[in-house]
Amino acid sequence: MKIEVRWLPAQQGSLKHIGRGRLIHTNKDEIEDWRSAVRNRVDDYRERNPGHGLPYEGAVVMRLVVSLRRPPSVSRNKRPYPSVAPDLDKLMRAVGDALQKCGVLVDDAQIVDLTRLAKVYCKEDPESLEVPGARIVVLPMAPLEELTKG
How many C-beta atoms lie closer than 10 Å to residue 147's C-beta? Predict the structure, then answer.
């Protein structure tokens, strides 16, 4: 499955204690909007590829390139890479959870290999989008015997 999600990426939020043992997500609205955008693109993919065999049930390999907008106040010389929040690992967690919730994966623990995991500025990387979002590729992992052939 190969999709492009054109929406402001959200990282998997942290939990915040609000008293009396209660916890809330720090960015609940943003993560729900992001998951909805991923779900919409997965639904489009399913319509264009009937019988594709989702959800994947075995091990999968994933490629994830998240595109972020460069702030107008930050020049390429000042910060050539998006080395500030959002955290790349939290972006990855959000995508994995979204793929599980919309039925691409039975469990996001199925992701056993990442061919590329990157956050880049829009239009500044060969795999970046022109707008904020993400390129997501999920494929079944090749059988081990194919990977070890000489």
Answer: 9
The encoded tokens of residue 99 equal: 């793929």
pLDDT (0 to 100) of residue 52: 84
| Closest residue by Cα to residue 94 from 82, 86, 42 | 86
The range of the structural domain enclosing residue 21 comes to 2-139
Q: What pTM did the predictor assign?
A: 0.88
The number of folded domains in the chain is 1
Q: Distance between CA 39 and CA 102 in Å, rounded?
A: 6
Strands 15-19 and 22-25: antiparallel
* pLDDT of 25 strictly over 70: no
Task: Quote the tokens at residue 119.
Answer: 């956050």
C-alpha distance from residue 142 to each of 53, 81, 103, 135, 150 (Å): 16, 32, 21, 21, 15
CB 94 within 8 A of CB 10: yes
